[in-house]
Design goal:
The structure is a single chain. The protein is α/β, with parallel strands linked by helices. The protein folds into two domains: 2-115 and 336-340, Aldehyde Dehydrogenase, Chain A, domain 1; 121-317, Aldehyde Dehydrogenase, Chain A, domain 2. It contains 13 helices and 17 strands. Helix 3 links the parallel strand 3 (39-43) and strand 4 (68-70). It starts with a strand and ends with a helix.
Amino acid sequence: GRASIKYQPIGVVGNVVPWNFPFNLAFTPLGSIFAAGNRCIIKPSEYTPHCTQLMKKLVEQYFDVTELAVVTGGPKTGEIFSTMPFDHLLFTGSTSIAPHVIRGSAENIMPLTLELGGKSPVIVSQSANMKQTADRIMFAKTLNAGQICLAPDYIMVPEDQKETFSNLAMDSIRTMFPTLKENQDYTSIINERNYDRLKGYLADAKRKGAEIIEINPAEENFTQQQHFKIPPTLVINPSDNMKLMQEEIFGPILPIKTYQTINEAIDYVNAHDRPLGLYYFGADKNEENEVISQTISGGVTINDLLVHATQEGLPFGGVGASGMGAYNGLEGFKNFSHAKPIYRQTPIEKVLQMLRPPYTEKLYSILKSMAS
Protein backbone atom coordinates (compact mmCIF):
# COMPACT_ATOMS: atom_id res chain seq x y z
CA GLY A 1 0.00 0.00 0.00
CA ARG A 2 0.93 3.66 -0.15
CA ALA A 3 0.37 6.21 2.63
CA SER A 4 0.29 10.00 2.31
CA ILE A 5 -0.93 13.14 4.07
CA LYS A 6 -3.02 15.84 2.43
CA TYR A 7 -3.13 19.19 4.25
CA GLN A 8 -6.48 20.91 3.91
CA PRO A 9 -7.81 24.32 5.05
CA ILE A 10 -9.83 24.05 8.24
CA GLY A 11 -12.19 26.92 7.33
CA VAL A 12 -12.73 30.17 9.25
CA VAL A 13 -10.29 31.23 11.96
CA GLY A 14 -11.24 33.75 14.66
CA ASN A 15 -8.40 35.96 15.90
CA VAL A 16 -8.79 37.77 19.24
CA VAL A 17 -6.18 40.55 19.34
CA PRO A 18 -4.91 42.37 22.48
CA TRP A 19 -4.14 46.07 22.84
CA ASN A 20 -0.34 46.03 23.22
CA PHE A 21 0.52 45.31 19.54
CA PRO A 22 -2.78 45.79 17.72
CA PHE A 23 -1.50 45.64 14.12
CA ASN A 24 1.31 43.12 14.58
CA LEU A 25 -0.84 40.57 16.41
CA ALA A 26 -3.75 41.04 14.01
CA PHE A 27 -1.80 40.67 10.77
CA THR A 28 1.27 38.50 11.51
CA PRO A 29 -0.74 35.30 12.11
CA LEU A 30 -2.50 35.85 8.77
CA GLY A 31 0.61 34.51 7.04
CA SER A 32 0.00 31.07 8.55
CA ILE A 33 -3.80 31.31 8.38
CA PHE A 34 -3.90 32.33 4.70
CA ALA A 35 -1.05 30.01 3.67
CA ALA A 36 -3.16 27.12 4.90
CA GLY A 37 -6.05 28.36 2.73
CA ASN A 38 -8.35 29.67 5.45
CA ARG A 39 -10.43 32.79 6.00
CA CYS A 40 -10.23 34.97 9.11
CA ILE A 41 -12.31 37.27 11.30
CA ILE A 42 -10.39 39.62 13.60
CA LYS A 43 -11.68 40.97 16.93
CA PRO A 44 -9.39 43.84 18.06
CA SER A 45 -9.21 45.18 21.60
CA GLU A 46 -11.63 47.88 22.68
CA TYR A 47 -8.64 49.70 24.25
CA THR A 48 -7.23 50.67 20.82
CA PRO A 49 -10.17 52.36 19.06
CA HIS A 50 -8.10 54.45 16.63
CA CYS A 51 -6.02 51.46 15.52
CA THR A 52 -9.19 49.40 15.17
CA GLN A 53 -10.84 52.07 13.03
CA LEU A 54 -7.85 52.19 10.66
CA MET A 55 -7.57 48.40 10.60
CA LYS A 56 -11.23 48.01 9.68
CA LYS A 57 -10.94 50.66 6.95
CA LEU A 58 -7.89 49.01 5.35
CA VAL A 59 -9.28 45.49 5.55
CA GLU A 60 -12.56 46.54 3.93
CA GLN A 61 -10.61 48.41 1.25
CA TYR A 62 -8.31 45.55 0.23
CA PHE A 63 -10.14 42.33 1.13
CA ASP A 64 -13.49 40.80 0.32
CA VAL A 65 -15.56 40.28 3.46
CA THR A 66 -15.58 36.53 2.78
CA GLU A 67 -11.75 36.50 3.01
CA LEU A 68 -10.98 38.78 5.95
CA ALA A 69 -13.21 40.84 8.22
CA VAL A 70 -12.86 42.97 11.36
CA VAL A 71 -15.48 42.87 14.12
CA THR A 72 -15.53 45.75 16.62
CA GLY A 73 -17.05 46.04 20.07
CA GLY A 74 -16.39 45.90 23.80
CA PRO A 75 -16.01 43.07 26.32
CA LYS A 76 -19.47 41.66 25.63
CA THR A 77 -18.66 41.38 21.91
CA GLY A 78 -15.40 39.67 22.80
CA GLU A 79 -17.21 37.22 25.06
CA ILE A 80 -19.70 36.33 22.31
CA PHE A 81 -16.89 36.15 19.73
CA SER A 82 -15.06 33.42 21.67
CA THR A 83 -18.20 31.26 21.76
CA MET A 84 -18.88 31.43 18.00
CA PRO A 85 -18.47 28.15 16.09
CA PHE A 86 -15.19 28.95 14.34
CA ASP A 87 -13.15 26.15 12.85
CA HIS A 88 -10.22 27.42 14.96
CA LEU A 89 -9.79 30.26 17.45
CA LEU A 90 -6.55 32.15 18.03
CA PHE A 91 -6.47 34.09 21.29
CA THR A 92 -3.60 36.35 22.32
CA GLY A 93 -3.96 37.75 25.82
CA SER A 94 -3.47 37.22 29.52
CA THR A 95 -3.38 33.91 31.35
CA SER A 96 -6.23 35.13 33.58
CA ILE A 97 -8.61 35.49 30.60
CA ALA A 98 -7.59 32.25 28.88
CA PRO A 99 -9.77 29.94 31.07
CA HIS A 100 -12.86 31.96 30.10
CA VAL A 101 -11.95 31.59 26.42
CA ILE A 102 -11.45 27.85 26.85
CA ARG A 103 -14.82 27.46 28.57
CA GLY A 104 -16.51 29.58 25.90
CA SER A 105 -15.08 27.48 23.08
CA ALA A 106 -15.79 24.13 24.74
CA GLU A 107 -19.44 24.08 23.69
CA ASN A 108 -18.40 24.00 20.03
CA ILE A 109 -15.48 21.59 20.60
CA MET A 110 -13.38 24.25 18.89
CA PRO A 111 -9.60 23.86 18.50
CA LEU A 112 -7.63 26.69 20.09
CA THR A 113 -4.29 28.39 19.74
CA LEU A 114 -3.55 30.32 22.93
CA GLU A 115 -0.72 32.86 22.93
CA LEU A 116 -0.49 33.93 26.56
CA GLY A 117 2.42 35.22 28.59
CA GLY A 118 3.63 34.61 32.10
CA LYS A 119 6.90 35.40 33.81
CA SER A 120 9.66 35.08 31.21
CA PRO A 121 13.00 34.78 33.06
CA VAL A 122 16.48 35.96 32.13
CA ILE A 123 19.44 33.95 33.41
CA VAL A 124 22.64 35.99 33.37
CA SER A 125 25.79 33.89 33.50
CA GLN A 126 29.02 34.74 35.27
CA SER A 127 30.55 34.60 31.77
CA ALA A 128 28.24 37.28 30.34
CA ASN A 129 29.37 40.67 29.06
CA MET A 130 27.60 42.63 31.80
CA LYS A 131 27.38 46.01 30.05
CA GLN A 132 26.01 44.54 26.83
CA THR A 133 23.65 42.35 28.85
CA ALA A 134 22.33 45.28 30.90
CA ASP A 135 21.83 47.41 27.78
CA ARG A 136 19.86 44.70 25.99
CA ILE A 137 17.75 43.78 28.99
CA MET A 138 16.82 47.38 29.81
CA PHE A 139 15.96 48.08 26.17
CA ALA A 140 13.61 45.08 26.09
CA LYS A 141 12.15 45.95 29.49
CA THR A 142 11.35 49.54 28.50
CA LEU A 143 10.18 48.76 24.95
CA ASN A 144 6.46 49.60 25.01
CA ALA A 145 7.04 50.21 28.75
CA GLY A 146 7.40 46.47 29.27
CA GLN A 147 3.89 45.82 27.96
CA ILE A 148 5.00 42.84 25.87
CA CYS A 149 4.05 39.21 26.43
CA LEU A 150 7.72 38.25 25.92
CA ALA A 151 9.20 41.05 28.04
CA PRO A 152 11.82 39.95 30.57
CA ASP A 153 9.75 39.55 33.72
CA TYR A 154 12.59 38.95 36.17
CA ILE A 155 16.31 38.30 35.94
CA MET A 156 18.70 36.04 37.82
CA VAL A 157 22.30 37.19 38.23
CA PRO A 158 25.26 35.71 40.12
CA GLU A 159 25.24 37.03 43.66
CA ASP A 160 28.57 38.83 43.28
CA GLN A 161 27.32 40.61 40.12
CA LYS A 162 24.14 42.09 41.61
CA GLU A 163 25.53 45.55 42.31
CA THR A 164 27.47 45.69 39.03
CA PHE A 165 24.41 44.78 37.01
CA SER A 166 22.16 47.23 38.89
CA ASN A 167 24.57 50.11 38.25
CA LEU A 168 24.90 49.22 34.57
CA ALA A 169 21.11 48.98 34.25
CA MET A 170 20.77 52.49 35.67
CA ASP A 171 23.45 53.78 33.29
CA SER A 172 21.62 52.20 30.38
CA ILE A 173 18.35 53.96 31.23
CA ARG A 174 20.11 57.31 31.66
CA THR A 175 21.62 56.93 28.18
CA MET A 176 18.36 55.95 26.47
CA PHE A 177 16.07 58.30 28.40
CA PRO A 178 17.70 61.48 29.81
CA THR A 179 14.11 62.48 30.63
CA LEU A 180 10.96 60.39 30.93
CA LYS A 181 7.85 62.37 31.74
CA GLU A 182 7.35 64.20 28.42
CA ASN A 183 9.75 62.06 26.40
CA GLN A 184 7.84 60.53 23.47
CA ASP A 185 10.43 57.75 23.27
CA TYR A 186 9.27 56.45 26.66
CA THR A 187 5.86 54.77 26.54
CA SER A 188 2.97 55.28 28.93
CA ILE A 189 1.06 52.49 30.63
CA ILE A 190 -2.13 51.80 28.66
CA ASN A 191 -4.67 52.99 31.25
CA GLU A 192 -5.30 53.91 34.87
CA ARG A 193 -6.30 50.39 35.89
CA ASN A 194 -2.96 48.92 34.81
CA TYR A 195 -1.09 51.91 36.23
CA ASP A 196 -2.71 51.32 39.62
CA ARG A 197 -1.95 47.60 39.38
CA LEU A 198 1.77 48.28 38.85
CA LYS A 199 1.92 50.90 41.60
CA GLY A 200 0.24 48.33 43.83
CA TYR A 201 3.00 45.81 43.07
CA LEU A 202 5.64 48.34 44.14
CA ALA A 203 3.76 49.28 47.30
CA ASP A 204 3.39 45.60 48.19
CA ALA A 205 7.09 44.92 47.57
CA LYS A 206 8.14 47.93 49.64
CA ARG A 207 5.82 46.94 52.48
CA LYS A 208 7.36 43.46 52.50
CA GLY A 209 10.91 44.77 52.72
CA ALA A 210 12.25 44.82 49.15
CA GLU A 211 14.96 47.26 48.07
CA ILE A 212 13.42 49.41 45.33
CA ILE A 213 15.49 51.55 42.94
CA GLU A 214 13.50 53.99 40.81
CA ILE A 215 15.53 55.13 37.79
CA ASN A 216 14.48 58.73 37.19
CA PRO A 217 17.43 60.44 35.44
CA ALA A 218 15.99 63.99 35.51
CA GLU A 219 14.34 63.54 38.94
CA GLU A 220 10.95 64.44 37.49
CA ASN A 221 7.75 64.56 39.51
CA PHE A 222 5.32 61.89 38.28
CA THR A 223 2.55 62.57 40.79
CA GLN A 224 0.89 64.92 38.29
CA GLN A 225 1.06 63.94 34.62
CA GLN A 226 -1.16 63.70 31.57
CA HIS A 227 -0.08 60.10 30.95
CA PHE A 228 0.26 56.97 33.10
CA LYS A 229 4.03 56.75 33.03
CA ILE A 230 6.03 54.82 35.61
CA PRO A 231 9.82 55.24 35.71
CA PRO A 232 11.89 52.09 35.12
CA THR A 233 12.25 50.45 38.52
CA LEU A 234 14.55 47.74 39.88
CA VAL A 235 13.38 45.53 42.74
CA ILE A 236 16.36 43.82 44.36
CA ASN A 237 16.04 40.25 45.67
CA PRO A 238 12.24 40.18 46.01
CA SER A 239 10.66 37.33 47.95
CA ASP A 240 8.19 34.95 46.37
CA ASN A 241 5.35 36.18 48.58
CA MET A 242 5.40 39.54 46.79
CA LYS A 243 2.69 40.10 44.16
CA LEU A 244 5.21 41.07 41.47
CA MET A 245 6.76 37.60 41.78
CA GLN A 246 3.39 35.86 41.58
CA GLU A 247 1.83 37.61 38.57
CA GLU A 248 3.03 38.71 35.15
CA ILE A 249 4.32 42.27 35.59
CA PHE A 250 3.62 43.72 32.12
CA GLY A 251 5.31 47.01 32.92
CA PRO A 252 8.73 48.67 33.41
CA ILE A 253 9.45 46.99 36.76
CA LEU A 254 12.38 44.56 36.85
CA PRO A 255 12.92 42.20 39.80
CA ILE A 256 16.55 41.11 40.20
CA LYS A 257 17.16 37.82 41.98
CA THR A 258 20.56 36.34 42.76
CA TYR A 259 21.88 32.79 42.59
CA GLN A 260 24.99 30.88 43.67
CA THR A 261 25.09 28.14 41.01
CA ILE A 262 23.51 27.75 37.59
CA ASN A 263 21.58 24.72 38.85
CA GLU A 264 20.00 26.92 41.51
CA ALA A 265 18.80 29.31 38.79
CA ILE A 266 17.47 26.44 36.68
CA ASP A 267 15.65 24.94 39.67
CA TYR A 268 14.01 28.28 40.41
CA VAL A 269 12.73 28.61 36.84
CA ASN A 270 11.45 25.02 36.85
CA ALA A 271 9.61 25.53 40.13
CA HIS A 272 7.26 27.96 38.39
CA ASP A 273 4.90 27.87 35.40
CA ARG A 274 6.48 27.26 32.02
CA PRO A 275 7.13 30.70 30.48
CA LEU A 276 6.49 31.99 26.97
CA GLY A 277 10.14 33.00 26.61
CA LEU A 278 13.42 32.26 28.34
CA TYR A 279 16.66 34.20 27.90
CA TYR A 280 20.26 33.28 28.64
CA PHE A 281 23.23 35.64 28.54
CA GLY A 282 26.70 34.15 28.64
CA ALA A 283 29.67 32.70 26.75
CA ASP A 284 29.76 29.30 28.47
CA LYS A 285 28.42 26.81 25.88
CA ASN A 286 28.11 23.95 28.37
CA GLU A 287 26.10 26.14 30.72
CA GLU A 288 23.99 27.42 27.81
CA ASN A 289 23.18 23.85 26.75
CA GLU A 290 22.33 22.96 30.34
CA VAL A 291 19.84 25.83 30.57
CA ILE A 292 18.23 24.97 27.22
CA SER A 293 17.98 21.22 27.87
CA GLN A 294 16.83 21.39 31.50
CA THR A 295 14.12 24.05 31.18
CA ILE A 296 10.87 24.12 29.19
CA SER A 297 9.62 27.36 27.63
CA GLY A 298 7.75 28.50 24.54
CA GLY A 299 10.99 29.74 22.97
CA VAL A 300 14.54 30.80 23.80
CA THR A 301 16.80 33.67 22.76
CA ILE A 302 20.51 33.52 23.59
CA ASN A 303 22.41 36.75 24.36
CA ASP A 304 19.43 38.91 23.44
CA LEU A 305 15.69 39.15 24.10
CA LEU A 306 12.44 38.85 22.10
CA VAL A 307 14.26 38.02 18.86
CA HIS A 308 13.20 34.38 18.47
CA ALA A 309 9.62 35.61 18.00
CA THR A 310 10.64 37.78 15.04
CA GLN A 311 12.07 34.89 13.00
CA GLU A 312 9.44 34.08 10.38
CA GLY A 313 10.67 30.51 9.93
CA LEU A 314 10.38 29.67 13.63
CA PRO A 315 7.10 28.75 15.33
CA PHE A 316 5.92 31.28 17.91
CA GLY A 317 3.89 29.87 20.76
CA GLY A 318 3.75 28.91 24.40
CA VAL A 319 3.74 25.73 26.43
CA GLY A 320 1.79 24.85 29.56
CA ALA A 321 0.45 27.96 31.27
CA SER A 322 1.98 30.22 28.59
CA GLY A 323 -0.16 28.81 25.79
CA MET A 324 -0.64 26.07 23.22
CA GLY A 325 -0.26 25.88 19.47
CA ALA A 326 1.90 28.17 17.35
CA TYR A 327 2.01 30.28 14.21
CA ASN A 328 4.76 31.28 11.74
CA GLY A 329 6.78 28.93 9.59
CA LEU A 330 5.90 25.35 8.73
CA GLU A 331 4.46 24.70 12.20
CA GLY A 332 2.07 27.62 11.75
CA PHE A 333 0.87 26.22 8.43
CA LYS A 334 0.27 22.84 10.08
CA ASN A 335 -1.44 24.44 13.07
CA PHE A 336 -4.14 25.97 10.86
CA SER A 337 -4.49 22.92 8.58
CA HIS A 338 -6.15 19.55 8.83
CA ALA A 339 -3.65 16.77 8.16
CA LYS A 340 -5.81 14.21 6.36
CA PRO A 341 -4.16 10.75 6.28
CA ILE A 342 -4.75 8.80 3.06
CA TYR A 343 -3.97 5.13 2.47
CA ARG A 344 -4.20 3.69 -1.04
CA GLN A 345 -4.47 -0.08 -1.06
CA THR A 346 -2.63 -2.11 -3.72
CA PRO A 347 -3.98 -5.28 -5.40
CA ILE A 348 -3.30 -7.90 -2.69
CA GLU A 349 -6.56 -9.80 -2.80
CA LYS A 350 -5.00 -13.17 -1.88
CA VAL A 351 -3.51 -11.76 1.31
CA LEU A 352 -6.73 -9.97 2.22
CA GLN A 353 -8.73 -13.14 1.61
CA MET A 354 -6.48 -15.00 4.03
CA LEU A 355 -7.31 -12.46 6.76
CA ARG A 356 -11.04 -13.10 6.44
CA PRO A 357 -12.96 -15.96 8.05
CA PRO A 358 -12.97 -18.87 7.92
CA TYR A 359 -9.40 -18.91 9.27
CA THR A 360 -7.15 -21.68 7.99
CA GLU A 361 -4.16 -23.54 9.36
CA LYS A 362 -2.00 -21.64 6.90
CA LEU A 363 -2.88 -18.32 8.60
CA TYR A 364 -2.17 -19.79 12.06
CA SER A 365 1.21 -21.01 10.83
CA ILE A 366 2.06 -17.53 9.52
CA LEU A 367 1.03 -15.89 12.80
CA LYS A 368 3.07 -18.41 14.84
CA SER A 369 6.15 -17.77 12.74
CA MET A 370 5.70 -14.00 13.18
CA ALA A 371 5.35 -14.40 16.95
CA SER A 372 8.49 -16.50 17.22
